[in-house]
Design goal:
The protein is α/β, with parallel strands linked by helices and 528 residues long. Helices cover 31% and strands 25% of the residues.
Length: 528
């Protein structure tokens, strides 16, 4: 690369594509670390070369631009390379959740029209059992190590050149499918272009104030829209991502100390786990600039303790698989009031304000805009919302109307423009003719000193038709008294919103992103 005309080379790929970003980083920051994973350290120059080698390999295998390459893996640096391959080579990356059952995986791999499937070593047996049911998959590649009847990823790197491929990927080329969580039904694939992903990264880079010298610790799953956006944004900025395959709270604290981590994305349950690590004060956590949370509300007591341990580093984001994901955010400055007695802390229950480049409206069932304080559906317009659902045109028409993404989330806004999520439209409980938003009840339950986790659902009832039911997990060493909980709620919310029944469990079910899966709770009660 030393013989090339640097500035001319910087114009090789179209602006607004990740081909341009990946190559730019290799030219301008060749020796800076791009990814760290276990004992592997990869510079931006090496990452670009690895991406090129796999693109050349896929072309040799007969995979064409615009075809789908599937990815079934836990977090690893090889998965990050595959995303780069799709973004630079014009393939459509289709990441699958490793926690899905064999039948669910068969459906998604077939639905996505996956041609080539990259498989993590832990998932090889699952895929081998599925192979007879996947006639559309022509190539199987194992990401780490080796396996019978699968091509080795390492072999691809060793047998192909790292020079720039002879192709050009445009801003409107399709490069990724991100699946809805499937917690309320069959997952659908949200389809994205280079332009969508670049727009989201430019917005998110402002939200998290990422600099080229920063270091991000990835514990959020790479197949999830949040985890995908975080590593893409740090790649976009020419920064570094340190990857953990799985979340382990003590290992996270140690990595923050050893790798001088500046940024991290978590869910509230993960912060609770970190704060409960014995002797947390022994770790040097001073490098942290931002701990970003989402997926569920942050209990105020947890936030207070987090501020005591990590300092003023907490920010919040709200989005979904279809939105790209950036919709709203709440910066660090808005969190500081939690430690100020008498300060107005209402906005801590919000999802913040709309992101730059994002327009948000709240509308009623007729599409009319709601006044502040009134609950309606949150609809969103931006340059990074999905272009539609993969192979589901009717669902796309029902979800994107006149350019506005209908999120299915219910919420309202206040006099200062803060947006509050009332609940999912489908989760709303209608009991005795009254509407109850589970999140409002959960906020009250989290205030009880014995409650560690809370989920509120509606279950069938012969009198109320549907009644409010709470599923609670106690804090370690605590016990929960059902009658006391009901009395506690009645003092704080209307009687019709108060749970009429309560179940105590050791832990609530969660998906790979750490979000409580209410579908499992409803299914359990449907069997009773």
């Amino acid at each position: 690369m030393s013989e090339q005309l640097l500035l001319k080379e910087l114009s090789r790929y179209d602006i607004g594509t990740f081909a341009d970003i990946i190559y730019r980083n290799a030219l301008l920051y060749p020796d800076n670390e791009a990814f760290v994973y276990e004992s592997i350290r990869i510079t931006h120059f090496e990452y670009n070369a690895m991406v090129n080698k796999v693109i050349h390999a896929l072309f040799k295998m007969g995979v064409k631009k615009g075809e789908t390459i599937g990815l079934l893996s836990w977090n690893c640096v090889q998965a990050a390379v595959i995303y780069g391959v799709a973004m630079k080579g014009g393939f459509i990356a289709s990441p699958f959740n490793p926690r899905l059952t064999a039948d669910e995986l068969e459906y998604l791999i077939t639905y996505s029209e996956t041609d080539t499937l990259f498989v993590g070593p832990e998932l090889v047996d699952t895929i081998n059992r599925l192979k007879p049911r996947l006639p559309g998959v022509r190539n199987y590649i194992i990401l780490e190590g080796s396996a019978d009847d699968m091509v080795s990823f390492q072999e691809l790197l060793e047998s192909n050149p790292g020079n720039e491929p002879d192709l050009n990927v445009g801003v409107n080329d399709l490069i990724g499918i991100i699946y809805t969580s499937g917690t309320t039904g069959v997952p659908r694939g949200a389809l994205y272009t280079n332009s969508c992903f670049i727009s989201d990264c430019s917005t998110f880079a402002l939200d998290v104030n990422v600099q080229q010298i920063d270091r991000h610790l990835q514990v959020t799953p790479q197949f999830h829209i949040a985890g995908n956006t975080w590593f893409r944004t740090f790649l976009y900025a020419g920064a570094c991502t340190v990857i953990h395959k799985f979340f382990n709270p003590a290992e996270v604290l140690n990595t923050i100390q050893e790798e001088k981590i500046t940024h991290m994305n978590i869910v509230p349950t993960q912060l609770v786990a970190m704060l409960n690590v014995p002797n947390i004060e022994k770790y040097d956590l001073n490098s942290m600039k931002l701990i970003w949370y989402g997926a569920s509300p942050m209990p105020s007591e947890v936030l207070k303790k987090g501020l005591d341990v990590f300092g003023n580093v907490f920010g919040q984001g709200y989005g979904q698989s279809e939105s790209g994901p950036a919709i709203t955010h709440m910066p660090k400055e808005d969190h500081m009031v939690v430690n100020i007695p008498g300060a107005d802390q209402k906005h801590l229950l919000s999802a913040g304000k709309p992101d730059i480049g994002v327009q948000v409206r709240i509308v009623d069932e007729d599409g009319n805009d709601c006044a502040r304080g009134y609950v309606g559906e949150i609809i969103v317009k931006s340059r990074h919302i999905m272009v539609g659902y993969w192979k589901k045109p009717e669902d796309t028409k029902d979800t994107i109307i006149d350019g506005w993404l209908h999120t299915g989330d219910m919420g309202y806004y206040d006099e200062n423009g803060y947006i509050y999520i009332a609940d999912r439209k489908k989760d709303m409980i209608i009991t005795g003719g009254e509407n109850v938003f589970p999140r409002e009840v959960e906020e009250v339950l989290y205030q009880h000193p014995a409650v560690h986790e809370a989920a509120v659902i509606g279950i069938p009832d012969p009198y109320w038709v549907e009644k409010v039911h709470a599923v609670l997990a106690p804090k370690k060493g605590q016990t929960i008294d059902e009658e006391e909980i009901i009395a506690f709620c009645k003092q704080r919310i209307a009687g019709y919103k108060t749970p009429k029944s309560i179940e105590i469990v050791p832990e609530l079910p969660k998906n790979a992103a750490g979000k409580i899966v209410k579908k499992e709770l409803r299914a359990k009660f449907a069997k009773k």
